[in-house]
Design goal:
This protein has 271 residues and is α/β, with parallel strands linked by helices. The protein is built from nine helices and ten strands. The protein binds zinc ion (ZN).
């Protein structure tokens, strides 16, 4: 990948992480983490040439996703077919290029077209998940073990390509800033994963995983977030945090014993 495009993707990831923290930890004071992330954003911005940064700032104000993959010679932001000359330049990564129609930065990523399955016929949040991805009462005593187990299941059911890599990316993100909220609900997620669409696995852990900062972790929403779906993800976690932050809904899903029972509750969220 072109060096500058790679930096822009990292920059966008950091900016999204800042937004996610606001959504997940609404009531919590995370000023030190925020300051650290903002510092990282500034460092990255300072390494970019002025011309690229000013285009990036301008496009970011206009679009949620300022850097988008080119798939089958088409801009994945505005879906116009790109001129051959530009498509070739993007494909060989030698120079950075913007879409001539929407101005988003483009990068080449064939992996976005392959692999995992999605179920899009549901409405609400259910379109990002499946009954196969409801995992009641898994056994784990640490967050790492729970994440590895859920990542392996998600891959085994065919929703992400590489379960081990998925687990690794989830753990790296978790190390950056933990995604657990007071009630013992966690939102581990990994951006840039090879999957056709945003994919969410829902697991309950019984008994909950002991942890210093919240109630024992007993409900995990684990997401694979391909880059172009990052903004959907913000909407997704915001709805999940709102719905399952209510004790009655939380208790309902925690007490489920089968995937069917969990799915029946899950399809109600965000309808
Ligand atoms: Zn475009």
């Amino acid at each position: 990948m072109n060096k500058f495009i790679n930096q822009l993707l990292q920059l966008h990831d950091l900016e999204l992480t800042l937004k996610e923290n606001t959504v997940i930890h609404r009531s919590k004071n995370l000023d030190s983490v925020k300051a650290e992330l903002e510092e990282d954003v500034n460092v990255l911005k300072n390494t970019l040439p002025y011309e690229i940064l000013s285009i990036y700032n301008r496009i970011s104000r206009k679009y949620d996703i300022p850097v988008t993959p080119m798939i089958n010679s088409t801009c994945n932001g505005c879906f116009i077919k790109l001129p051959v000359g530009i498509a070739n330049k993007v494909q060989c990564d030698s120079e950075w290029r913007c879409c001539p129609n929407c101005s988003r930065f483009l990068y080449y990523d064939e992996t976005q077209t392959t692999g995992a399955k999605t179920e899009l016929h549901y409405k609400g949040l259910a379109r990002f998940s499946s009954m196969d991805l409801m995992l009641p009462r898994i056994k784990a005593t640490t967050m790492d073990a729970a994440i590895k187990k859920i990542a392996a299941e998600t891959a085994q059911k065919g929703f992400v390509e590489d379960g081990k890599l998925f687990a690794k990316m989830l753990l790296i993100r978790e190390a950056l800033t933990p995604t657990t909220v007071e009630m013992g609900i966690a939102f581990p997620h990994a951006r840039g994963v090879k999957a056709c669409g945003l994919t969410l696995s829902v697991a309950t852990v019984s008994p909950g995983i002991k942890n210093n900062t919240s109630a024992p972790i007993s409900l995990l929403f684990v997401s694979a977030v391909p880059r172009q779906t990052s903004m959907f993800y913000l909407e997704l976690i915001s709805k999940l945090a709102q719905y399952f932050g209510k004790p009655e809904n939380f208790e309902k899903i925690i007490s489920c014993e089968t995937p069917e029972e969990m799915w029946r509750i899950f399809v109600q969220v965000g309808k």
